[in-house]
Amino acid sequence: MQLVRMVGLALAVVVALLFAVFVGDQGPWYFAWVVGTVMIVLTASAGAVLFEAQHQGSEVKDI
To answer: What is the pTM of this model?
Structure first.
């Protein structure tokens, strides 16, 4: 399990370094774009989970 984790982290580091080399000066803009996109997806997912929990809670009260 540790080996798989280390290989995954090493792969992420290599991809990040290659990304930084290829984008050059525009790196901070792309980084901000990726972080913003991830945050939007996580916020939408959390909202969907909360909505589903509220919907299930209201069904339990109706019974």
So the answer is: 0.55
Token pair in block for residue 22:
């290829």
Residue at 35 is within a domain: yes
pLDDT in tens, 15-45: 888 888 888 787 788 888 889 999 999 999 9
Query: Domain of 60?
Result: 25-63
Burial class for 31, CB neighbours closer than 10 Å (0-12, 13-18, 19+)? middle
How would you write 10-29 as a 3-class SS string?
Answer: HHHHHHHHHHHHHHHHHHHH
Helix (H) or strand (E) holding 1: none
Q: At what angle do helices 27-62 and 2-23 cross, to 10 degrees?
A: 130
